[in-house]
Every structure is written in structure tokens, then in C-alpha cells.
Design a protein that fits this description.
Elements (H helix, E strand, L loop, with lengths): L1 E4 L14 H9 L3 E5 L10 H6 L3 E3 L9 E6 L3 H5 L6 E5 L6 H9 L3 E4 L14 H21 L6 E3 L2 E3 L3 E5 L3 H12 L3 E5 L4 H8 L3 E2 L5 H4 L13 H15 L4 E4 L14 H6 L5 E4 L16 E3 L5 E3 L9 H19 E2 L4 E2 L6 H6 E4 L2 E2 L10
Parallel strand pairs: 1-2, 1-4, 2-3, 4-5, 5-6, 9-10, 9-12, 10-11, 12-13, 13-15
Antiparallel strand pairs: 6-18, 7-8, 14-15, 16-17, 18-19
The protein binds nicotinamide-adenine-dinucleotide.
Length: about 375
């Protein structure tokens, strides 16, 4: 069977869904691998690195013969037309609000897997694209902040005087936030962080940062069974805003990462709070793609306001560190693919009873099969 890895057609997507390492592993499973020419270039992987590991270099037309297609983004209608019926397509599908696109994949007979729906269970940790990419985004957020801050992050004592350490405040201490905390600490900043999940408190402290939050009864119950945040009550949000307002005014850098699954990002930093910051301060809003945590943040823009505060709103932040992001993403997809390969027949077998398949399979056998997207039963 053949696995095809195309070059992403979205010009803003530099990542690629295979690495030399995963090509080698797929070959070892008995699969043939075809990589579209130039697919890895934006992730600093030349074609020769893929061929060294046994891949063939091909063109878009090779999609037609592929049994499995590995991608970063959901395939476009054009791309879908280039795949054979029965092909497995594994990617981040971003399917909410994209019912027509999901149905198009079903009609084409494609088995589409949404990697972002991988359950957060031990067995699937190695397949968790949200974590691998959020981790790098958290790191990159600090690098992006430092690049526009125009002051040093660590305290520097020199013969010519002392530069004070920067104060960094991280809002949302999930995967991205925790990595942002660790990175800012390594760069010598004084770091505080907040979250609405009580479990975050200890994790923040273990990274050497100070936890600040409104710790009332609602906070103590704010974590769902899946480990995600709940949307907080209006009363909590008001208490949180008062606490945050005081704290933000004293910060040099604020990095926001707060998300609630299936809901718009909570607004945590108001325009008044932004206005209260010192000239030269920097805010990085990692949630900007999902509506943003910061009032005034604009997707894909870096804005310096009249008061001298800069708001950084990059989207696809993992893509800004594409060479590393692709290696981890490729490994996540490989691990999932491997779990579906029958070791004796060396073929990929979709077992609809497997819990990983159940959670991620959107379309199969000509129909939309995922519970969140399938048409309601009559
Ligand atoms: P996420 O990207 O959904 O959200 C980022 C953070 O924002 C979360 O920590 C959330 O609590 C926080 N947040 C939401 N609303 C907020 C508000 N109003 N104010 C402040 N913070 C707010 O989360 P994530 O990074 O995907 O992680 C969620 C949880 O899942 C974490 O506990 C993480 O450790 C856990 N996790 C488990 C596994 C696994 O077991 N395999 C893998 C990854 C993450």
C-alpha cells in the first residue's frame, strides 16, 4: 500500500506531515511512501532527505494511487478530487462549521480522520497533535514577545549599570501556557501565571512561577472530567477581571493562551487594561485565531498602539517554528497510522470499534460517521 504526503496548498502553512524519520518507519512497516516534490522545503527538509529514507518523490498526480494521504490541513475540494475512493486521509480537519466540506469528503468515499479529536488518554499521548503543536507555540510566543520587546528579559548587572528583569504574566496554563512559563523562566524573566483550573496551580509552581488567581469555590470545581476548563460564571469573570487589571498594569509582557473547548476564547484583557500598561510593553495573544483573549488583538497582525503597547496576533504560531513542528506532527500521525497497520498483512485496516478510530473518524464508506457531524437519525 502507498502513503502519499502532498505539499500543503495553503501558502500560510509551512508544515509537512512526514519527516525523514517517519518515512523510515513507514517503510519498515512495509508501506510505500511518495512525497510530493518540495513538500518539506518550508520545514527545512529537502527532497533528498526523504529519498535517503526510501521515499519516492512524486507530484500531485500521485495522490490518485494513494491508499493513505497524510496532511497538515483538511484537503480542499480540488485535492479531494485527486484521491481515490476508499483512501484514508489523516489531517487536522477543523470540521466545526464546515459541514459542506465534511460531506464532500464523505461523498468522495474518503475515510477522513480528524487528528485534533484524538482522546487524551495514555495510549494516544504520542498521537496528540494539539499538545505537540501547542507546546511549540508556547515557546514561540515568548520568542516573538522577546523579539519586539526591545529590552532584555533577564536581569543584567554590568559595569554600566543594571537592567531589571522583565515581568512576564502568562494567562492560561495549559500545554502552551506551561511551555511559555518555562521558556520565559529560562530567559530570566520574573514569571507569574493564572488559570481557572485548580490543577494548574501546582504545575505553575513546579516551573518556578508564581500562581495568581481568584481561588473561590467555583475555581475549586472548574475542571471538567476531560481536564479542560469550563466557561466561568459572570460573577467569577468580574472578580477575575479586577484581579487581572491590577496585575497586568505592572507587567512588561503578557502572554494569553486561554481556551475553552467548543466556545469562543474568553476575553481576559480589556482595552482599559491594555491602556494601563507601560509604553514598550508587549502582549502576545495565542488565542487570536479563536476570537482572542485580548481586546484589540488582530489576527495576523502586530499592532503598536498610541500608548506604545504592542499586541502580537500571529496565527498558526506552531508554523512559525515549522522545522520542529513538522517533526513532532509527523511523529503524531505516524503513531496513529502504525496503530492501524496489520503487522501480518502489512495493510492499513480501519477498525471502527477502536476507540481512537471512533473518536477521530469523520467520514467512512460514503457517509459522515462522526457523532458530532452525522445527520440526526430519522
Ligand atoms: P486549552 O488549550 O483548551 O486551554 C488553555 C488553558 O486556558 C487551559 O489550561 C484552561 O484551563 C485555560 N483557561 C480557560 N479559560 C480560562 C480563563 N477564563 N482564565 C484563565 N485561564 C483559562 O488547554 P490544553 O492546553 O489543551 O490543556 C488542557 C488540560 O488538558 C490541561 O490540564 C493539560 O495538562 C491536559 N492535557 C492532558 C493530556 C493527556 O493526558 N494526554 C494531553 C494534553 C493536555
Amino acid at each position: 500500500q502507498t502513503v502519499f504526503i502532498p505539499k500543503e496548498i495553503d501558502p500560510s502553512e509551512p508544515r509537512v506531515a512526514a519527516s525523514p524519520d517517519t518515512v523510515k518507519r513507514m517503510k519498515a512497516l512495509g508501506l510505500d511512501v511518495v512525497v510530493e516534490a518540495g513538500a518539506g522545503l518550508s520545514s527545512r527538509i529537502p527532497d533528498s532527505e526523504f529519498t535517503k529514507m526510501g521515499a519516492a518523490i512524486g507530484s500531485v498526480a500521485d495522490g490518485e494511487h494513494a491508499d493513505v494521504v497524510l496532511k497538515v490541513r483538511r484537503p480542499s475540494d480540488d485535492e479531494i478530487r485527486g484521491y481515490k475512493s476508499g483512501a484514508l486521509v489523516i489531517a487536522t480537519m477543523d470540521p466545526y462549521g464546515k459541514q459542506a466540506e465534511v460531506e464532500a469528503m464523505a461523498s468522495a468515499g474518503i475515510s477522513a480522520f480528524a487528528m485534533e479529536f484524538m482522546p487524551r488518554i495514555t495510549r494516544a499521548q504520542v498521537m496528540d497533535v494539539l499538545s505537540s503543536q501547542a507546546n511549540l507555540a508556547g515557546y514561540q510566543a515568548v520568542v516573538d514577545a522577546a523579539a519586539v520587546y526591545e529590552r532584555a528579559l533577564p536581569m543584567m548587572m554590568t559595569a554600566a549599570g543594571t537592567v531589571p528583569a522583565a515581568k512576564v504574566f502568562v494567562m492560561g496554563a495549559g500545554v502552551a501556557g506551561l511551555q511559555a512559563i518555562a521558556t520565559a523562566r529560562r530567559m530570566g524573566a520574573i514569571v507569574t501565571a493564572t488559570d481557572v483550573r485548580p490543577a494548574a496551580k501546582e504545575q505553575v509552581a513546579s516551573l518556578g512561577a508564581k500562581f495568581v488567581a481568584v481561588e473561590d469555590d467555583e475555581f475549586k470545581a472548574a475542571e471538567t472530567a476531560g481536564g479542560y476548563a469550563k466557561e466561568m460564571s459572570k460573577a467569577y469573570q468580574e472578580k477575575q477581571a479586577a484581579m487581572v487589571a491590577d496585575h497586568v498594569a505592572k507587567q512588561d509582557i503578557v502572554i494569553t493562551t486561554a481556551l475553552i473547548p467548543g466556545r469562543p476564547a474568553p476575553k481576559l484583557v480589556s482595552a482599559a487594561m491594555v491602556a494601563s500598561m507601560k509604553p514598550g510593553s508587549v502582549i502576545v495573544d495565542l488565542a487570536v485565531e479563536r476570537g482572542g483573549n485580548v481586546e484589540g488583538a488582530v489576527a495576523d497582525a502586530v499592532i503598536t498602539l498610541d500608548n506604545g503597547v504592542t499586541i502580537v496576533g500571529h496565527t498558526n504560531v506552531a508554523g512559525r517554528i515549522a522545522a520542529s513542528a513538522s517533526l513532532l506532527y509527523a511523529r503524531n500521525l505516524y503513531a496513529f497510522l502504525e496503530s492501524m497497520v496489520d503487522k501480518t498483512s502489512k495493510t492499513v485496516v480501519v477498525n471502527p470499534e477502536d476507540e481512537l478510530v471512533k473518536a477521530t473518524l469523520l467520514t467512512h464508506g460514503g457517509s459522515v460517521v462522526h457523532a458530532n457531524f452525522a445527520p440526526a437519525a430519522p
